[in-house]
Amino acid sequence: MRTVVVTGASQGIGRVVATAFGAQGDRVVLAARNTDNLAETAADVERAGGTPEVVATDVTSWDSVSQMASSVAALSGAADVVVANSGVGGPSGVLWELDPDEWDATFAVNVRGVFLTAKALLPAMIEQRRGTLIVIGSISGKRPLYGRTPYTSTKSALVGLVRTLALETGEFGIRVNLISPGFVEGPRLDWVIGAQAEARGVSPDVVEDEFKAQSPMHRLTQPSDIADTAIYLASDQSSALTGVDLNVNAGVVMY
């Protein structure tokens, strides 16, 4: 039985990814701040056939992430797979009008959170000389998104982090890869669509159709698309892939 750690597992993509690993029969360590929602994810993982372990974790806190890593060590010695999924959307607005504290808070979760997660869990993985780290990024790290410099900057940072970490850990049998989702259907995208619709004075359906039109397939990305890719990256079938940034976005971004 593999031990899989999923941060940001309380909802959205994280919940779907965790449940997908549960369906593989894995032990899934569910890490997030919202323990009520984690209980719901745990039930999904168990129904799928996995073994859930709930560990309340604040990825911006080194003490909290260290305690999570200690829990993983007590369970199995080391994680076999880590999915660093925690993320926030951050504030919206042109850069010169942003609150510096909100900028810092976005980086604290989206970049520092990945750094701390990797720092805490990698030593045991290095010792066992195997493992896979999968980071969830965004197509917004590769193209401009008006009024969202904090978010896009964090997602750009993850590209460099993943490539460099892949170089540093390869000799220990560890692979590090990035998934860049597109417009993923769910509550967060609903919020984005609603905010844009309100700002422009149009119907949310109009904005959603515009998002779909950016895809050659005229569709949104599903959370299950991200989960399927994570399962692949954690498998032996992707053993030659490291330092890769996979676009999972129905063709919205192809580079």
How would you concisely characterize the structure shown here?
This protein is of the alpha/beta class and 255 residues long. 49% of the residues lie in helices and 15% in strands. It has 2 domains: 208 residues, Rossmann fold; 36 residues.
Walk me through this protein's architecture.
The protein starts with a strand and ends in a 7-residue tail after the last strand. By secondary structure, the protein is an alpha/beta fold. Strand 1 (3-7), helix 1 (12-23) and strand 2 form a beta-alpha-beta unit. A 7-stranded parallel β-sheet has the order 3-2-1-4-5-6-7, sandwiched between helices. The longest helix is centred in the middle third of the chain and has 29 residues, at 100-128. The protein has 2 domains: 3-183 and 222-248, NAD(P)-binding Rossmann-like Domain (Rossmann fold, 3-Layer(aba) Sandwich); 185-220. Helix 1 packs across helix 8 and helix 4 packs parallel to helix 5 (149-169). The chain contains 8 helices and 7 strands.
Oligomer: single chain
Radius of gyration: 18 Å
> What fold name stands as the CATH topology of the largest domain?
Rossmann fold
Structural class: alpha/beta
Q: Helical content, roughly?
A: 40-55%
* CATH class group of the largest domain: Alpha Beta
Low-confidence stretches: none
The major β-sheet equals:
7 strands, parallel
| Order of adjacent strands in the largest pleated sheet | 3-2-1-4-5-6-7
